[in-house]
Amino acid sequence: MDQFYLKNAALYQTYVDKVDPTEPQLHFSNLPPQAPKTVTDNDNPNMAISVRIRPMLQDDITSGFPCAVYPRPHDPTAAHQTIDLHDLYNHPRRPRPVLRSSTHKLQTVFDASASTTQVYDEVVRDLVLSAVDGKLGTLFAYGQTSSGKTFTVTELQKLAVADLLDRQTELHVTIIELAGNVAFDLLNQREKIAVREDASGTTQLVGAIEHQVADKEQAFDLLEKAMSFRRAAPTLKNPASSRSHCICRIKVTSPGSPTPGFLYMVDLAGSEIARDVTAHGPELMRETRENNVSLSVLKDCIRQRALAATSKKKVHVPVRGSTLTKILKHVFDVEGGSDCRTVVIACVNPSLADVASSKNTLRYAELLGKID
């Protein structure tokens, strides 16, 4: 597929240059437009959804791949921001490839020029402040490998810790990894830990160590230490792809709150397609399958939780479907009354070479933000 894109890069760019960004992009170039998808007002009230588009890398440009992801100009009056995504399609009834485009609407879109500090200020700071107030805050970063997930989460963790320490809070940090459905403590030589429910139904990380943080330097050292123990393996797109979920839990004790708050910052494993992991051995293939299953369960839990909040009927939220959702059970607690705020940052690689994965990421993000 890469060779097809490279061979037709000039034609593709010609098509894209003619696109009117004010019109819904849901048609094949040179064919009658299809009816545009309608975007309903059934937003998930428990979830703030953002998209971050990473810059085109020099390798992308040198290889000859054009950009496929185009955010429209920011409209501060709009409830949603819009992204146009353009693909090239070998249509059986046309003598040459045609453009296949789609429009995606998300609550917040950060283009390639946005800094991580801007992301923090706009969508993460309030999450951190909720933990200062003794509540639960959870952040997920989702996307394929090489989309900027790990960079984004790591930098947001540093900003969050610095912000919390500036507010005279006491912090205890735990960082664990889920490789498939097996959990490891990344701050204790990657020792295996157990994920269990106690008598009250609360999920406990048995064997995981909490590290009290005295200052920013110590916190940053812990984050770097955790990264050094994280599972990585080569994929077609990334020679050192994170092949696991990484969960950073920060316990926040504040003088102004009678109970501690918790901040969970989750770097989800890459949402890989089959061709990207063909070099994996049997064990890594199994872990990749389990990772993909857990991402699917996570989506189901988020959507069922949103339905439960608005439905008069009892709605089943499948939190026991994966180890990931067991650990993050608080996000989906309907009857327990947990006060949890959640932010999702969908990270997107803008290169045409990764357009299929980028489309999947944007669709996943849209689904998380909607209630059926």
Automatic annotation (TrEMBL):
Could you state one GO cellular component term attached to this entry?
Answer: cytoplasm
Q: Which residue intervals define the domain Kinesin motor in the entry? A: 46-371
Q: Which InterPro entries match?
A: Kinesin-like_fam, Kinesin_motor_dom, Kinesin_motor_dom_sf, P-loop_NTPase
Q: What Gene Ontology molecular function terms does this protein carry?
A: ATP binding; microtubule binding; microtubule motor activity
Which amino acid positions bind ATP, per UniProt? 143-150
Q: Which domain of life is it from?
A: Eukaryota
A single GO BP term for this record reads: spindle elongation
- PANTHER family (UniProt xref): CHROMOSOME-ASSOCIATED KINESIN KIF4A-RELATED (PTHR47969)
Give the protein name, as stated in the record.
Kinesin motor domain-containing protein
